[in-house]
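Lab meeting, action items carried over

1. Structure of the two-component assembly. Owner: GW. Status: complete.
Input record:
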Amino acid sequence: MSNAYRTKNSTGLINKNKKINFSFNGHTYHGYEGDTLASALISNGIHLIGRSFKYHRPRGFLGVGVEEPNAMVQLHEGNKSEPNIMATEVELVEGLKAKSQNCWPSVQFDIGEVNNLLNRFFPAGFYYKTFMWPKSFWMKIYEPFIRKAAGMGVAPLQPDPDRYEHNYEHCDVLIVGSGPSGLASALAAAKNGARVILAEDKANFGGSLLTDEVTIGNMSGKEWANDTVAQLKSLPNVIMKKRSQVFGYYDHNMTVMIERVSDHQENPSKYTPRQRLHYIRAGEVIVSTGSIERPISFGNNDRPGILLASAAKEYMKVYETLVGKKPIIFTNNDTAYSTALEFLKNDIVPVILDTRNNSNGELVKEVKQKGINIRFNSGIADTKGHLKIKSAVIGELDKDKENFTSLESIDCDCICMSGGWTPTVHLSSQAGNKLKFNEEIDAFVPDKKRQRESAVGAANGSFTLNQSLAEGFQVGFDLSNKFTDNNIETNTPNSKEPKYEKHERLWCMPLPQGKKPKRFIDFQNDVAVSDVELAIREGFRSIEHVKRYTTLGMAGDQGKTSNLNGLQYVSNIEKKIVPEVGHTTFRPPYTPVTIGAIVGREVGNHYLPTRKSPIHNWHEENNAVFVAAGLWQRPRYYPKESENMNDAVNREAANVRKNVGICDVTTLGKIDIKGPDAPEFLNRVYTNAWLKLPVGKARYGVMLREDGMVFDDGTTSRLSENHFHMTTTTAQAANVLSHLEYYLQVVWPELDVNVLSTTEQWSGIAVAGPKSRELLSKLFPNIDLSNEGLPFMGLVDTNIDGIFTRIYRISFSGELAYEVNVESNFGLHMWKKIMDEGKAFNIEPYGTEALSTLRIEMGHVAGAELDGRAVPFDVGLNGMVSKKKDFIGKRSLSKEAFTSEDRQTIVGLVPLDKRTKIPEGSHIVENDKVASPVPKLGHVSSSCWSVEYNNPFSIAIIKDGKNKIGKNLFAVSPLKDISIPVEVVSSHYVDPDGERVRS
Amino acid sequence: MLEIKCPYCGKRSQNEFSYGGDATVKRPTLGEEISTEDWDNFVYFRDNPRGKHTELWHHVSGCRQWFKASRDTATHEIFDTCKMNEAFNE
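Predicted assembly:
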């Protein structure tokens, strides 16, 4: 049986000299180079591919490309496994493994098919009706069951091993689709000098020219396509992309295209990506996406072996594959006759059923001349054959074509149906084009455009070759000339094609008398004519509602073959014309896109940029455990031997309180502020006064947003009369810079001030603890670091090893502390110097956890308290607010709500047992025994183990905090099911008068 | 993704910019008495027009300049952009 279904002539695009082995459901077969998985399977006589979504009905191929709704398979195995792949879109490659999905135990015998027998219990919307009671069953029983039963493929659980890339492109004219109109547009635009990208989804350029018997100039359509492709390839201003689908059309002519780079290669080289996602910003987009054939609804029209007539023709002409040897052609138009002629070339005589009363189109005449009997005014009522079509019940239609007058059964092994053609308007619609209904072709076509997009050829409803070429050459020239103004016009060649007569407006066959076989409209979602009737009967009128209730057109194929037939049927029942019913919205992606391609190289460590301080390597060498602080990697703690995190943090923090610690604070935001109006600017930005800050002094400042909420805090120092150095928190550094730029550029452009980020220019090293002065005095013997020489909030510039060094006496830990700043490149050098000198003082590095412990104990607020909901009063910063001057956000502070006594304000908490740590985020309540909802007083913002008192301590923000001090409350965490009795204390737990920092 | 013309750098993709809201809002003068209602209007209330909107953008991953854009909020068409001290060419 191997490859028994091949055509007589080898005039297609497969290479019979190269055999390719593959397996399907565990059996090994072979095909040839140039085959798709679909054509290879069909050539081996296999049509049964999978089971349908809802009823588990046996299904085969309907189409030959992206329109395929049925033939989805699971490809590959293990971590490369990929579900729901259209077999029509997979190029055959040696060793390819594919299997059927949504069936068990096998595609031939599927237990789930019981759904088909029970189908009267599963009409449209059944899950809204059937699975309502009891309510609690939905989440645990009904939903998982339905999800399992109604299925597609299985997603792999391992990480995707493949490589995907992103590429950004710009061009004057992007042309989507390489059929006659696409090639014509590309040639015209390229010859006129425009930068052109031509995208083709398939493995071969040419579109319908590969299957249609036409003549262009003195060449066949196929020859002309090859010739044009060769011309285009030779031009330097053209990028040709095959295996590339433009699937999304977004704002400002941004389109996204997926390119299958190595899916079809047997052994791609190591760094070749599997797929590449191209973001193309096109000056103009030409949509030459062609059209898709419409199926016809008739009884059991979904059996394997029933497919579109155009697909059957393409399998023969391009893939040299016969979809059957005993075909029925069923059509309402002329184009299917070209499929009939193709069968005749293979000495196969098809039965032809035409719903029309007659036709004198050129192809019909040709068939008639060959002596083939055409049954006009006829249709199919029903079909038989469980796993593959075996016979059809056919008959003549009455005058109104609403009933069959007689029925007979005839044997067949395939049915090639054609309900006419639907222009592929998805991209135009995505671009915002308001479609209009063209009654001549009974389909929607692009109309008023919103973006720079032009449809040509069949996508524009122009179904003749003459029209397609004329439009293509004209539009290609016009659009390219907007960019080049070269005025080089390419002549449209003469073309010859058969003349067609009009189709009949009939897409749904009557039922055979006394029977009710399902007549499918949407194959992928198992939506039949009866479901649409039910929706209308139940009162759904808007097409959007009918769509959602029946799920018509909502499957992965986006209703490529079903939307228009569904619309037409609703229109028939409602006795309206189609444009009155309207159409549903087309949304990207046009075809399914692998998540891996969307993610691209932004995986793992490449997900975000990583920022490292110049001292990072030292931290690594010294066993630091890192934590992400925005993009920065900061040492969290430095465990020694068997220490756990708590042990290490307590040791590090205690050592700062007792001896001296060193901490890398390079990540703090730093902004250089210069200009004659700099003091005035700072005075407006910060809540406290800045005009009189002496040169050589630092000051702590708080800035608000206009709504009065604390935005950021930090110390800023005056380096000279008009030069300041601002520090911000690590988290808000970028936002503060934007904030300052906003006020300088937008609000107060009259202020003569410049701001510049210097975060990466300076490396900062905090040296904190009672022995810090002694240590630095040894390192910098030439400067006076005494309390008088460099008092709290002072700064001094010095020099060591020829390195400019600025020492600030500022403290975050609440201890006597300094911050040593050097130019970034010398950060590591300075750090090592301090460490060496510090050995004698028992210096130890401390990470962000110990840093937090130290600031929490002292009641210093940080990000957890300054969460965008706190005014200065809430977090004990009232003293920082100037009464005299105005500043950003000041007016908000006098609003009633922000001065209310019962606002939530900052306090400290100590557990009564002095042992249980209070989880951050816990709720504070007065009584934990009352029924819920328990009135909430506030929440715990920061927690630590106080190394000073050796018990847990937390900062909390609670209602009327000041008056709660001394009271006992409860910290509850319902998530962890704990309730901790706590005492409310001052948030300044250690050294409340701040004596140490000034010592 | 929108394509925005920075008046200093030229056309760039939207991911280089951040949005800054209604450009016609005037911040009250510092130190001036202002009613709560007027202040609230400045801080909280913005028109949300369907159609033409004059707005601020910040070329945050570029030249770091704030500038004005005239954009249709329904279609995203950008009619013009200009520096803060300029007017649109309309």
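2. GW to write a short summary for the group page. Key points so far: The CA atoms of residues 7 and 82 of chain B lie 6 Å apart. The radius of gyration of chain B is 15 Å.
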